Structures are given as structure tokens and as C-alpha cells.
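Hi! If you just cloned this repository, the fastest way to understand the data is to look at a raw example. We've pasted two of them here, unedited. The first protein comes first, obviously.
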Amino acid sequence: MSIEWNDIYVDIETTGLDPFNSQLITIQVRTKVETKIWPVWLEAQDGEKSVIKKFISFTDAIDRYNSRLIGYNVLKFDLPFLIGRMINLGMLTHEIWTRIFHELNWFDLYQFLGDEFGKFRKWKTGLAGGSVTTTNEQIPELFKQGKYGTIIEYIRDEMEGYEIVHNAIKKEVFYSELQSLRKRILLT
């Protein structure tokens, strides 16, 4: 029996690294069909709360048994930041905690590729070519300046990069061997 995963790429942009002193700028997901971006600047009334609610609703709607959420540093940054923001905003419930950490399947490219901070650009350009014009370090300043179009362009490029890097990894022999080992040990 083989699992055919529905791969969903996940990322966030923030004004800083500390969820208790910084805020979300966007949450985004990329599916086989589309890239969804939930920016705070379009949610004038509820801002971050609305963006987080949309992401939680999205996760409620996916098939948790056959979907795999993939990100870069998602387990060490994105998820802890989201949890911190939900605590600050009074949104974190036992149900949400359980959904995020126990019911969803996560795959972190950061840990899989060697746990080296800041190397995603090298992986992306090495596998897909091209160059990176905007970096994630620039996003907070772009947000302050109201350069939302540049942020959206960066997000679309980065989400495409996650998919390119992940698909390249899946073509490697070691990956198929790992999947065969997983199948033999866990699914028999």
C-alpha cells in the first residue's frame, strides 16, 4: 500500500522573529491548484486574527490523512510563531493545538536538507536557476513602506521554490529508498 500525498506548501511572513513583540504580515499556502495568500493589510478590522482564522479554516478543510504540509523551517519558526501570536491574541484553544500538532502531517525542508539556517536560497537557485531579488530579511521594511506588490511577488516566487526543491528531492534515489523503507516498516 502506497500513500499518494497531497502536498501543500506553507509559509508565513512576519515583522520580526519574536511572536510576542512582532506580528504576522501574511500566511500563505500553495496547493496543486493555486497559491493562497492571506495578507493582514486586506483585513483592516481583524488583521492578524482574520488571517489566522482563514489559515485554520483551510487546515480544517484538508484531508488530514493524505495531506502533507511542507515548509522551510516550519517546525522551528513558522508554527511556534503562529502559536505565540494565537496566545497573544487569545485565540489558541486545545482544539487548534491538537489540530496543528497532532492531526496534520508536517515535512520541514529545513531539517531535511541539513538544518542550516538561511540556505534555502542556495537550494532554490541551485535546483531552479535564476537569482533571488528580494529576501525574507527585506519583508518587514517592505511592509512598513506599503510595498505590498513586492511582498506578494516574493511570496509567489518563494512558494514556487519550495515546490521545486521538494520535487527535486523526491526524484533522488535516497528519497525513494527512504519511502520504501517507511512503507516496509510502518505500513505492513
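Ok, and the second one:
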Amino acid sequence: MRVRFPDFRPDGSQHAHRHDVIMNMSAQDTIELAGHGLVLREWRDDELEAMVAVFDDPAMAYWTPMATPFDLEAARAHLERVRRRRALGERLHLVITTDGEQPKGEVMLNKLTGTIGYGVGPAYRGQRLAYRAVLLMTEYAHQVEGLAQVSLEIEPENGASTAVARAAGYRLSDKKPQTVVEKGRPTSLLTWVHDA
């Protein structure tokens, strides 16, 4: 499935040009999303080293549930998990690229909970990749998956992710903070939501 979205602003309006093409295909077909200067696509078998370059990073280790250290073995396990959850229709993990080739991060949609998660590799931060990937995945969640609401779960101290949520048009919900333990570290998560 290849989906090209019109360029939406965070307030829901769209730019004058529109060039969206949506093709309905089976769940086993490859998915590629294009918009906001990004191409989101699925991981390839030969990208384990690129995956390590994205995820083996102190900030990624601190703010996300990714394995630490993230080596080739962790990359193989992640790829297997990603494909299994995709086949079950539970989650969609897509590589963040600007050209359809070089992996610069990953964005994930949990179809069961409507939650989006993401991470950008250390070499590619400061390019608004997270903001653009969240916008694109949010559009996909609403327009293709038919989710009325999607959410981001963010620690109050994570200023960068809070800024991404605000820029992408999410609002802080009144949902009680969730307390979770990740890698032995207790943390509180605030829920930011975006309505279709």
C-alpha cells in the first residue's frame, strides 16, 4: 500500500495543493507513507546496522523502552517482533526517512490502543523529523485506520516530546498520569490526544 497525503497543517487545514492516493491492499502488503517531506516505510532485512545506529543511544535508552545496549542481536529481535505484530494487525512500525532510503528513526502506531511512539537517531535530531513523522502517522491513523482519536504518552520531564506533541496539534488530556516501570525506572506518563 502506498499512501500519499496532502500536506496538512497541525490545525487540520490543508495547503492548496493536494495529491493523495490511497490504495486498499491486504494486510501483508508493504506500506509506505509519504508527506511532510518524509517517506515512512517498513524495515528491510539488510538494515540491522542502520537500526543499531538509530537506537543505540543514551537518550533513546532513557526515554524509550528499547533494549539497552541496542546491538545487532537486539536489532534482529526488534525486527522479528515488529514483523510479528504487523502480521497480527496489532502494530505498525515504519522507518523515518527523507528519501525512502536512509533510516533516520522509527515511528510506531499501536492499532489496539491508538498510541503513537517514535524515536529519531542521534545523527538526525534537530531536523523536525519527529514532528513530521507524528503528523504523517496521525493522518494515517485517522484517515486509513479510521481511529477517531490517537494519543502520545509522554513523561512530564521530556520537553522535546512535549514540544512535538504541541506542534503536531495534540492536546494534554485530563486522563490520570500512568505510572509504569521501564528498565527498573519508575516513570509517570501524561496522555496527549489528537481527535479526527
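That's it. A detail worth noticing about the second one: The chain has one domain: 2-147.
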